[in-house]
Amino acid sequence: MSTLPTIGFIGLGIMGSPMSENLLKAGYEVTGYTLEQDKIDRLVKAGGKGAGSIAEAVRDADVIVTMVPASPQVEAIAYGEDGILENAKSGALLIDMSSITPQTSIDLAKAAKDKGIRVLDAPVSGGEAGAIEAVLSIMVGGEQADFDSAKPVLEALGKTIVLCGPHGSGQTVKAANQLIVAVNIQACAEAVVFLEKSGVDLKAALDVLNGGLAGSTVLTRKKDNFLNRDFAPGFRIDLHHKDMGIVTDAARNVGAALPVGAVVAQLVASLRAQGDGGLDHSALLRAVERLSGQQV
Length: 296
Fold this sequence. Notes:
The chain is an alpha/beta fold. 54% of the residues lie in helices and 13% in strands.
């Protein structure tokens, strides 16, 4: 019998599916639930167990991992008669890896404490590729003892795992991450259009740029998206729009100015309004092309 904690996993989307599979590879027993049956079937095929409800997935779990799109979905799966807090056993550890508002995480931790359930907010960066490769950067908010308990589980999912402070701190750091990523993608997109309009060999230019100070994980991960105009979603514009709302609102609350971030947030919103919300966030290139007079 395995001595590893049993895991209930809620949310088997672009990120959640490979993450749950990496937990299976690490030897954990994983029971998963999501809204799409085919994704539950994928987990079962990989060696996990499927559940017919949230309650069934979490009832016997020592650790519960959640990976859903936004605050409303976290609240929907956490609260209510059929939610996590009413059905998880006392002493269970809930690791919410969704990207949500810091206040939602703070409120969840408080409500869970009343039920005897420990909580960490642990959003991630690295996108679909990072989830598949188990090299995610994981920024965590919560108690030190709970972080220590969760560390082996998180090490099956990522490489950079840091406790950033009390509940909500992980989400605050994730908001800053999304600000940096969006601004970086926007700068790369503008450079791509500038280079192409100048008649430069784009692949050669991006290779040499990525070897210098302009290089970044963003450029490494998204270079082929730009070159091939391949915007199949690794991280959707819709989700980055949500995240830019989180960071601009949080910054306003603490009195931090985000002049460049505010502009990029509007560009993301504009791209979404033009019907590109389901595309990868590297599709910010399409917005720059439109502004530059190109047909997209």
